[in-house]
């Protein structure tokens, strides 16, 4: 198994695609010391969100290192942000620019394709299934993308990151009321700094699963006209769930050691990318021309997951 999934109740689903730290032996033996150290893992994210089971929140986390396969990167290697270099599904450089693999040992096209099949696809299908279950029960689902990162990485950004970095893809992936509710909770966390749509605005999952202006009803046939469309917003229950999670996460950082003062965030900052989607998932995953996730739907029809989507 390449991920751990916990089913629960409520309209909130939490995804932790960079929590894993394991590396298969046959891969590790080809890595440099920097690659085996896996310094770019989302350290402490499990501790920050250990309250999820208590609250019965459905969640999924990776088991293997992002250096093996980055689950929050597009398989086609397209840049995460306009003007940036291409991203890598199987990274070859650390955030600091160090080589992950020994000379001549980086994965080739066939191996990258194999890792996409064995790691990326299963995680995304399991995530889509959790979202489907929540949507079927509550009519809407909020997806919180949970991350941590070192607060100082000169190669990626200047200075020091705020403690909480909330990303909405410049407002394109989240309804304003959901974004504002989460931001208000984080702002009220005494002693912590935050920003909205700063250096990190959301990775592949937020970009692909968070489309607040696009909505489709479940596909019921192979009609040439395709699914019908309707607009929708996250209801108060979904919005409260996202805000509650943000509030509990801020409290969790204090219980785990007063954040910066005692080590939990002493070398990092928390990131949150939220997506809310109401729709039906299933079948298989592919990408459209813009790098967005497309799901094989019932009845043989293929299209974007039928829903409105919101992301912070």
Topology:
Elements: E1 3-6, E2 12-16, H1 25-28, H2 33-37, H3 45-48, E3 59-62, H4 109-138, E4 141-149, E5 164-167, H5 176-187, E6 194-196, H6 204-209, H7 236-255, E7 269-277, E8 285-287, E9 293-296, E10 302-303, E11 309-310
Parallel strand pairs: 2-3, 2-4, 5-6, 5-7
Antiparallel strand pairs: 1-3, 4-7, 7-11, 8-9, 9-10
Helix pairs in contact: 5-7
Identify the notable features of this structure and list them briefly:
312 residues; 7 helices; 11 strands; alpha/beta; 26% helix; three-stranded antiparallel beta sheet; globular
Question: Terminal Cα separation, in Å?
Answer: 29 Å
Report the count of strand segments. Answer: 11
Helix content: 25-40%
Q: Give average pLDDT, whole number.
A: 77
Flag low-confidence runs: 214-232, 257-268, 274-284, 296-309
- What's the main sheet like? 8 strands, mixed
Strand content: 15-25%
**Anisotropy-based shape:** globular
Report the order of strands and helices: EEHHHEHEEHEHHEEEEE
Question: How many alpha or pi helices?
Answer: 7
In a nutshell, what does this entry contain?
With 312 residues, this protein is of the alpha/beta class. Helix content is 26%, strand content 16%.
């Amino acid at each position: 198994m390449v991920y751990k999934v916990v089913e629960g109740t409520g309209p909130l689903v939490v995804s932790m695609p960079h929590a894993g730290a394991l590396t298969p032996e046959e891969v590790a033996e080809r890595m440099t010391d920097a690659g085996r150290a896996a310094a770019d893992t989302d350290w402490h994210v499990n501790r920050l969100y250990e309250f999820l089971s208590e609250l019965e929140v459905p969640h999924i986390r990776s088991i293997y290192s992002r250096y093996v396969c980055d689950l929050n990167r597009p398989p086609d290697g397209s840049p995460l942000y306009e003007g940036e270099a291409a991203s890598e599904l199987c990274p070859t450089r650390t955030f600091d620019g160090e080589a992950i693999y020994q000379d001549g040992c980086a994965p080739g096209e066939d191996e990258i394709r194999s890792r996409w099949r064995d790691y990326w696809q299963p995680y995304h299908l399991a995530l889509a299934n959790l979202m489907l279950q929540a949507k079927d029960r509550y009519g809407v689902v909020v997806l919180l993308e949970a991350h941590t990162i070192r607060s100082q990485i000169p190669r990626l950004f200047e200075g020091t990151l705020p403690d909480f970095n909330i990303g909405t893809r410049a407002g394109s992936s989240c309804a304003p009321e959901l974004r504002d509710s989460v931001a208000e909770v984080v702002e009220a966390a005494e002693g912590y700094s935050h920003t909205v749509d700063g250096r990190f605005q959301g990775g592949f999952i937020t970009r692909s699963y968070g489309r607040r202006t696009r909505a489709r009803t479940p596909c019921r046939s192979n009609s040439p006209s395709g699914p019908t469309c309707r607009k929708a917003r996250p209801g108060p229950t979904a919005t409260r769930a996202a805000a509650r999670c943000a509030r509990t996460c801020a409290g969790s950082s204090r219980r785990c050691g007063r954040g910066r003062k005692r080590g939990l965030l002493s070398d990092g900052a928390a990131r949150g990318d939220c997506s809310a989607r109401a729709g039906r998932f299933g079948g298989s995953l592919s990408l459209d021309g813009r790098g967005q996730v497309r799901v094989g739907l019932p009845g043989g029809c293929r299209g974007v997951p039928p829903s409105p989507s919101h992301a912070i």
